TrEMBL record:
DUF6596 domain location: 167-261
Xref: NCBIfam families: sigma70-ECF
Domain spans labelled RNA polymerase sigma factor 70 region 4 type: 98-149
UniProt family annotation: Belongs to the sigma-70 factor family. ECF subfamily.
Protein name listed in UniProt: RNA polymerase subunit sigma-24
Keywords: Sigma factor, Transcription, Transcription regulation
Single annotated GO MF: sigma factor activity
GO biological-process terms attached to the record: DNA-templated transcription initiation
Length: 377
């Protein structure tokens, strides 16, 4: 059954290319998935599961098209789906679908939702829960995104040349946001898994793009810590207190192997090297601080600067990090100041700062973690 998510995206992508009908493509893919769930446990998994699913979806699409007033050329294309050379076209379809779902004409969250629903086959209810909206509201959001693609005549293709260079960062940003939605303290872990799956897919389809491989490496290295990030009662465990033997060392090895053969050309490669700086034997904070210096030069966002302060505080002493915090306000800055102040030995001041940060923490698990640090001090 592990073929189902990947096959769903293949089927949808191919039928959209052939019919231009997003809803028909999704309906046929869903019917193929339902048929597999019903028949495979009873009859056994076929030798070519992906081909079986595509055939069922194709036959369903042909039935629907025959009953509609669709032009005969479209019907013939679907009916002749498996002619020689078509498999390469099917692989290209998946890349087309990803770039269409991630088109910059759509709002960023709409791109994430549409990618999850159309490429990944994630149920609308699950997407709605992570975005904190009702299922009906998410259905409307996804429908509007599809309508905009049709009305704006957004082309179903992968850009080339300069256009590809301009568009690829937007596609990677969608996957990055999707991973973050799964990796955050109160996130949905399955979304991080889906981001890794899609990053693998994109890496296979675009092997010459170093930032694509770097993004996959970053995801693998970050997600390798997932089993050590919570204690027995579900509370967050800070990185420096995690049991690193519980990290997924196979994912770490895969991520580092990707980095070894990937040149540093952009922010995802730098972030992956930062993640790789945390090893089983400890964290190489001087190396991490150096990478953050590089990242801050090309991506000088507040969050990068705050994380750079943490790295410098651990690499060169808490006063170095506190100096970099000057001028920053709000929850993350206060929490970081509390940690570095505790490291500097001012326990009372640190406890007050942890309680101050807890009062404005964005999630309950973070609030509990901050109050626990205050209680320790």
């Amino acid at each position: 059954m592990t073929d189902l998510p990947d096959s769903y995206g293949r089927i949808v992508a191919t039928l959209i290319r052939l019919t231009g009908d997003w809803n028909l493509a999704e309906d046929c893919a869903q019917e193929a998935m339902a048929a597999a769930l019903e028949r495979w446990p009873r009859d056994g998994t076929p030798d070519n599961p992906g081909g079986w699913l595509m055939t069922v979806a194709r036959n369903r699409a042909v039935d629907v098209l025959r009953r509609s007033s669709v032009e005969q050329a479209k019907l013939r294309e679907v009916a002749m789906l498996f002619h020689p050379g078509e498999q390469h076209e099917i692989e290209d379809d998946r890349l087309r679908l990803i770039f269409t779902c991630c088109h910059p004409a759509l709002a960023l969250e709409a791109r994430v939702a549409l990618t999850l629903r159309t490429v990944g086959g994630v149920p609308t209810a699950d997407i709605a829960r992570v975005f904190l909206v009702s299922e009906s509201a998410m259905t409307r959001r996804i429908t509007r995104a599809k309508s905009k693609i049709t009305e704006a005549r957004i082309p179903y293709r992968v850009p080339s040349g300069v256009a590809l260079t301009e568009r690829l960062p937007g596609v990677l940003a969608v996957l990055y946001l999707l991973f973050t939605r799964g990796y955050d303290a109160d996130g949905e872990p399955a979304f991080a898994d889906e981001a890794i799956r899609l990053a693998r897919l994109l890496t296979g389809l675009m092997p010459a793009e170093p930032e694509v491989a770097a993004l996959l490496a970053l995801f693998l290295l970050q997600h390798s810590r997932r089993h050590a990030r919570r204690d027995a009662v579900g509370d967050l465990v800070p990185l420096d207190r995690q049991d690193r033997s519980r990290w997924d060392h196979e994912s770490i090895a895969e991520g580092r192997a990707l980095l070894e053969r990937t040149p540093v050309t952009g922010p995802y490669a730098i972030q992956a090297h930062i993640a790789a700086g945390h090893g089983a034997a400890g964290s190489d904070w001087r190396s991490i601080a150096g990478w953050y210096d590089q990242l801050a030069r090309i991506q000088p966002t507040p969050m990068v600067e705050l994380n750079r302060a943490v790295a410098h505080g651990y690499a060169f002493g808490p006063q170095s990090g506190l100096a970099l915090l000057a001028g920053f306000e709000g929850y993350p800055a206060v929490a970081i100041e509390a940690d570095l102040t505790a490291k500097a030995g001012d326990r009372d001041r640190a406890a007050d700062l942890f309680r101050e940060a807890a009062a404005v923490a964005p999630s309950e698990v973070e609030r509990r973690a901050l109050l626990a640090r205050a209680a320790e001090l």
